[in-house]
Amino acid sequence: MLAPIIKVDAISKSFGAFKVLDGLSMQVMPGEKLALIGPSGSGKTTILRILMTLEKIDGGHIQIDGEQLYHMERNGQLLAADERHLAKMRQKIGMVFQLFNLFPHKCVMDNVTLAPMLTKGMARGAAEKRAMELLDMVGMADKAKAMPAQLSGGQKQRVAIARALALSPKIMLFDEVTSALDPELVEEVLNVMRKLAAETDMTMLLVTHEMGFAHDFADRVLFFDRGRIVEEGKPDEIFRHPKQERTQGFLKKIIAAGHRV
Amino acid sequence: MTQWSGYLGLILQGALVTIELTLMGSVLALIMAFLAGIGRLSRFFVLRALATAYIEFFRGTSIFVQLFWVYFVLPLAGISLTPLQAGVLALGLNVGAYAAEVVRGAIQSIGREQYEACIALNLGRWQGMRHVILPQALLVMLPTFGNNAIELLKATSVVSLISLADLTFQAQVVRSQTGNTLMPFTTILVIYFVLALIISWGVRSLERRMARGLDGVRV
Q: So what's the ipTM on this one?
């Protein structure tokens, strides 16, 4: 029996008086593709940011690949993780952001090679060879020398995906990666993600408002509301036969807004 | 009329001293600016406190008094400096304090998403600072650095008070030897102005070169 690669146990997180995550627990198996859906403010983006160590947690535990993320075991005691432990854990995780977050002063190639060269000590030649493979996979090989400002949103996001993949993470987090794109550019990014899901056994967590894509892409869909998982199940169960009233209400609103399910 | 060329030579010698002071003072100011500017953003209280104390002190007291301190008071503690050393030290420390705030502000102007990309790519704090944040912040700093350098150039004239033979000092010499006020002071006025123009042009062309590619038009 396989052990879960992500194990979230009773996580809570508040921003001021607002409780974003309220005793959230979930498990993800290796290779699983998860879609996290729900209204804004429901905590779905926050849990991705917590997994990437961009937010601190107020309480609870997270295990990644059998190891504590925010804690270190020392002499049988659990201590708060230091920077070195966090750096070790971050090697397992990559993230793609809604607004791409490319480095504007570096060309596409340098965006992709910077982290492997600095954090893994890869030589420039090896890093560039690997970067070209990845850029080729996302269909951006011919733009290797371009600056980010010369690219469209969809192209930027594909470069950002290649950049995250360059560190060969076991887990990839996608935070509303198509939300900032013009409608006609959404599909080129989704295609890259479909390819990625088909060709790799990476564990992928996806926060999205693209319900149609979530339906086709995910093995399992989690519906978030008010810092908790209200309902989860196979895409068909959630999208065709939601059991919870709040899930039904949310999907109704989404469909009314013109999204395809 | 022939003797004017001799006096002009004297003033040009002074110009060299002024240029030397400006260059060396700018280098020291730059070093101090980055040390104190980054120090102010440190995680460590001691570094923040040191940087803040330095900045507040050197901004809050007059360059004139600082120079006299370095040149006349430090020897009482056994540290004797040449006029040039004293001038570079006082000018560099003084202007560095202003420029440190420029460094801090520029670093803070870089969006949070760039820091988050650094974390997501597992860059260490210093790696992110060195390869991602500072290169972008530098572009924000440059125009104000240009201002600071011109301020420094003009402030070099205070060293004439500790008998360092810079532009202003030489003009005084020429004036006392010839009794002519118009010629020496007009000459150095023009020279200061031309030097300031050169700094402006230099900084602007550096800015243009660094901005290349960032707007997606020029590459």
A: 0.92
